[in-house]
From TrEMBL:
It comes from Chryseobacterium pennae. Keywords: Hydrolase. Belongs to the cytidine and deoxycytidylate deaminase family. This is Cytidine deaminase. SUPFAM superfamilies: Cytidine deaminase-like. PANTHER family: CYTIDINE DEAMINASE. PROSITE patterns: CYT_DCMP_DEAMINASES_2. One of its GO terms (biological process) is pyrimidine-containing compound metabolic process.
Amino acid sequence: MKKDIQISYEYFKNSSELSDIEKQLFERAKEARAKAYAPYSQFFVGCAVLLENGEIYSGNNQENAAFPSGLCAERTTLFWVAANFPDVKVKKIFVVGGPKEFHEKNPPIPPCGACRQSLIEYETKQNENIDLYFSSMNEEVVKVHAVKDLLPFYFDATFL
Ligand code: THU
């Protein structure tokens, strides 16, 4: 039996098409990106998280001379948020990434597989979908309405 999975997403050609809060998140993610510690890849990623109380927190990728010991921007940010505000729901996550010297052709940077899995843990825990935006420095933005949409057949606690 053949089955299909469909995901819907929104595409913004330019950040001017975003709402005010989305624009704020984009700006915060860009500010965080500028402070990324990525001396090995020269690939800079910033992330901004909007909580249900309206607060915004941000983070970036942190690399290490022992390469696998570094961490992506999404996990750096969300782990910090979860550690400090374990009972506050996350509404939106905005990611912006690209090479340090970005080119206008650089496409929106989607979260890696490990980040998708990690973010889904919190989406499941809070029992409410998180809007996820990923973008490039050239202002193109993709929005999905749940992190789960990016990881069909995700693994979670229900299997344990
Ligand atoms: N990176 C992120 O921070 N987020 C992603 O979604 C993709 C990759 C980081 C990890 C590493 O520091 C650099 O980008 C190159 O892979």
